[in-house]
Amino acid sequence: MANASSNDASTNARCACALYRPTAQFKPFEWVQGDRLNPSQQSQAAFLNDARDVVQGAQTLIQLLGWDEDRRDAASSDADPAPLFDACQRASLQRLLSATLGLLHARIEVQCEALTG
Questions:
Q1: Nearest Cα to 93, choosing from 68, 71, 56?
Q2: What is the pLDDT along the chain (117 residues), one digit of tens a residue?
Q3: Under a CB-based contact definition with an 8 Å cutoff, are residues 99 and 57 in contact?
Q4: How many CB atoms lie within 10 A of CB 83?
Q5: Contact, 4 vs 12, CB < 8 A?
Q6: Model pTM score
Q7: Is the distance from CB of 106 to CB of 54 less than 8 angstroms?
Q8: Rounded Cα gap, residues 61 and 100, in angstroms
Q9: Helix runs in 1-117, H state only
Q10: Which helix (H) or strand (E) holds 27?
Q11: Is the dihedral of CA 84, 86, 91, 96 positive or negative?
């Protein structure tokens, strides 16, 4: 009986963590068609398409990392699947996300300055 209650506590702890995992919902991806736009707008449309690709890829990678962390947390027995990434790989992917989103932010700032300047 004590074993069952400790399993319930473990399950509840995992569920509580999952409740606090942020999830973002994005509109379905649609390309901005630039063929009927003037050259300036074509450049902006290309940037927006690239930015959407980066955001969509980052979202997918965040979901994969969350899924892998759940596998890591559940891998307490031999029957549970092992996580795909070790701590070093997970940290590298998180740094990649940070750098990618930082570069995207910098390009967005340049675009905003160009529009206001």
A1: 68
A2: 444 444 444 444 443 434 444 455 555 556 677 778 888 888 888 888 888 888 888 989 999 999 888 888 877 666 777 888 888 999 999 999 999 999 998 888 888 787 676
A3: no
A4: 19
A5: no
A6: 0.62
A7: no
A8: 12
A9: 2-19, 39-74, 87-116
A10: none
A11: negative
